[in-house]
Write a structure and sequence with these properties.
By secondary structure, this protein is α+β, with helices and mostly antiparallel strands. Helix content is about 25%, strand content about 35%. The protein folds into 2 domains: about 110 residues, Immunoglobulins (Immunoglobulin-like); about 35 residues. About 10% of the residues have low confidence. One of its GO terms (cellular component) is cell surface.
Length: about 190
Amino acid sequence: GFCTNLLLSQTPEHILAQTNNKTEILCELKKEHAGVYWYRWSQERQNFEFLVFSNLLGKATYGADISQDKFSVHGVSSRTSYSLHISHLHASDNGTYYCSISQSSQLLLGSGTRLGVVDVLPLPSKTTRAPLSKKPVRCITKSKAADRKGACSPLVWVPLAASVLVLLLSLVPTAYRLHRLRRRLWLRIHRQ
């Protein structure tokens, strides 16, 4: 079976590359292993294809019909970092690439790198920025700082205090009526 695991990390997550160029995917292992497998999932063909296995000594074993000119694996001296180099890119190379290690009869997969190959790379989008003002930025004054705090702002507490005062004043006649009703009831009860 296959399962993703935190023992492997892959970078980058996405690659958009131009036809006939080359690219590289990095696989970092948390600890040293006997070697790294590389697989490709093709959405178009709906298959999981074994590409290459590279052992600690750098010896590579390729999958069926996999070109050694196209795929190569380079290990770093730490033996916990491997990179898959893909050259002569074509649309057929589109897919999600996974580095993998074998552990306890399972293949543990990295997070995956999605590769898209296009004939022409899109132009970077231009972000519009507001024109910079010529005035130097000044420090925030105390009054502006008070405005930003919200609850301490006079714009908040003055109307709030006024509304509380109006509410209390509107309760005075109601309290007076209740007091009179209570007194009338008390008088009725004592007259009987």
